[in-house]
Request: fold
Amino acid sequence: MTTQSARQAPAVLPGPNDPCWCGSGSKYKKCHRGADAVEARKKGSDIHRRGIRPGTISPPRSVPAHIPRPDYAETGRPARSPELSEVKSPDVIARMRRACRAAAQVLELTGAAVRPGITTDELDGLAHEAYIKLGGYPSTLNYHGYPKSLCTSVNEVICHGIPDSRALEEGDIVNLDITIFLEGVHGDCSATYFVGKVDPDSERLVKVTRECLELGIAAVKPGRPINDIGLAIEGHATKHGMSVVRAYCGHGIGERFHSPLQIPHYFEPDAKMIMRPGMTFTIEPMINLGHWQHRSWDDGWTAVTADGSRSAQFEHTILVTEQGAEILTLP
Reply:
């Protein structure tokens, strides 16, 4: 009789909530998943054997000369400039409303094309053309050298996945992260989509992540500290046995793609800045089925879950008002 300790992990590993391959009767995520991840690292292989592999990245797409560009469009480096107020003027807010609505339109159009068989590079092409038709520039394009017009994060990719030649497969989940530069300001939003029929854990993950965003937005109140947002999000994720990514957070946005203002999605005691009417920032929780830790691919952009579990994200750009929050990124 073969003992549990002598059994070898199968070539295809179970899902995090499936019974462990060893026969213990425990869920895989509570049994051998951590040990399998360590063993995979020793062998120099991917941590999760069903994980995403990078495809071929096509050249960056061109933007017509008449489209106004952010300061980094040519150099890849945002210009150093005097610090801008996190509280926006009425003029900036009016322009942000228009830019954010445009970003939401691009997300809606690109998300409608998600299906098995389409490549993430094809989705990049659709988004790119949509930006241009609206008179905007893809904010991600050449931002610190990023080569594409949106981010496509599939399955265990947390964020900043680069569109490439990989075709989406039945059962995948994919986050599309859209940002447009229009009228001198940026509008930023994202959503996670099902590719065909997905497993129950992925359905639950996406549902809880959307709820985390909603609760984070509901926590926005003038006069309250920023860390109220993370407190609401982390509490909901933890209640459902999920974790909040800590390496990435929401950010101030407006004339700059990213301002110094940071919005943690977990409770951070030091995030004490008081929310004031006129502030604009993103709330974009990244929620994992497994642990919150991440690792990075050699491309310098793609962040994936350290344990191979799936991750989902939803994002809105919001304006702090006298009453609470106005969601700017609605189509």
In short: The CA atoms of residues 101 and 245 lie 27 Å apart. The chain has two domains: 13-51, 90-327. Helices lie at 33-43, 90-111, 120-133, 200-218, 227-239.
